[in-house]
Amino acid sequence: MPKYYEDPYLKELEVRVVSRRGDYLKFDDTIFYPGGGGQPHDTGYFKGENFLAEIIDVKKDEDGIWHMIRKLNGEPEDKGKIYIDWERRYYLMKSHTGEHILYRSLEKLYPVRFVKVEFNVPESVIFIDGRLSIDDIEKAEEMANSIVSSNIPVTVEVEALEDSGDIRIRRDRIREGEIRVVRIGDFDSSACAGVHVKNTGEIGRIHVKKIKYSRENEIFFVVGDEALKEIEISKNAYRRISHLLNDFSNVYEKIVKMKTELDKLRDDYYKITEGMFRFENYTVNGINVYFTKEEIGDI
Questions:
Q1: Is it the case that residue 21 has pLDDT exceeding 70?
Q2: DSSP assignment, residue 203?
Q3: pLDDT digit string, tens, across residues 48-106
Q4: Is 76:69 a contact under the CB 8 Å cutoff?
Q5: Is 113 in the same domain as 50?
Q6: What is the C-alpha separation between 299 and 287, in angstroms, rounded?
Q7: Phi/psi at 271 (nearest 5 deg)?
Q8: Which domain covers residue 131, as residue numbers?
Q9: For residue range 141-200, what is the model confidence (pLDDT) as tens digits?
Q10: pLDDT level of residue 250 (50, 70, 90 thresholds)
């Protein structure tokens, strides 16, 4: 078992280079996650007494885990220490566990189907089948944050596929052998290759930033301090809009009304421009005058 699974909280590790493949190095062990399940690979540094190199890519193949380096100072030797970009890794760990919680909340409340997830810093996206309103999202977000604040242990176990039972699993991708199962108490069990936090409380907060309706619903979310920042931005925006409307109690209803009126004005504009092609043209004292009897709406 690689060190990134054995202890996901390790930030540095003494290593020995066992193989080289161009700019890629293979170590005797690694704390660098090679990516998978939507979670990107780790980045960081390989450092020795006489050299420093940046690790900019990590890949896994049948021969092991390979680290692409970019030399910063000196020539990389066979022994040294690798350092992970911990701030980035830890945020991705919180995002990944947060995604499990948020999706499971949606699944418990509504008939949705998971399509895929893409993690990034600071914003990640869950793609799902199933139409959802903003009210639906808010209810799921509330459930998810109740799980976060409950400080539920997150555990990882390796199990036989035939014993998977009610575990969430992509059976189109995993058909035999053993599976790595991430459990969040009795709230969720999912087959997953990613690295996660040990306790839901570490996530701090989950905040849905926006929803994009396309072929699938795209739910953009942030966690931790980034979530708190987004909530503060939303509060400040609400305050400013309320001040602009001079109404602090019915802001949403006013904006809906304004949008309805704007949509009507847009429709009237289209009717006018369409009608212009059917206008009768008269010339009065050398001036072109256009006239129509068509109804074009209130303007």
A1: yes
A2: G
A3: 999 999 999 999 999 999 999 999 999 999 999 999 999 999 999 999 999 999 999 99
A4: yes
A5: no
A6: 24
A7: -65, -40
A8: 89-244
A9: 999 999 999 999 999 998 877 655 677 776 555 555 788 899 999 999 999 999 999 999
A10: confident
Give domain status of residue 299, yes or no. Answer: no
Containing H/E element for 98? helix 86-109
Which helix (H) or strand (E) is 207 found in, with range? Answer: strand 206-213
Structure confidence at residue 8 (pLDDT): 96
In terms of phi and psi (left: phi > 0; alpha: psi -120 to 50; beta: otherwise), the region of 102 is: alpha
Both 235 and 265 in one domain: the answer is no
If asked whether residues 166 and 28 sit together in one domain, one would say no
Structure-token pair, residue 116: 């895929």
Tokens of 186: 């009795």
Closest to 203 in 3D by CA, of 154, 273, 272: 154
And the tokens for 174?
């995993």
What is d(CA 1, CA 65) in angstroms, rounded to the nearest whole number? 12
Distances 208 to 10, 134, 139, 177, 222 between C-alpha atoms, Å: 30, 10, 11, 36, 7
CA distance 248 to 252: 10
Residue 236 banded pLDDT, cuts 50, 70, 90: confident
* Same domain as 134, residue 110: yes
265 vs 270: which has the higher pLDDT: 265
Q: How far apart are CA 202 and CA 91, in angstroms?
A: 10
Q: Are 49 and 151 members of one domain?
A: no
Split into its structural domains, the chain has a count of 3
Rounded distance between C-alpha atoms, residue 137 and residue 218, angstroms: 11
Q: How far apart are the first and last CA of the chain?
A: 71
Distances (CA, A) of 41 to 5, 38, 98, 291: 14, 10, 18, 66
Q: How far is CA 115 from CA 112, 216, 217, in A?
A: 10, 8, 10
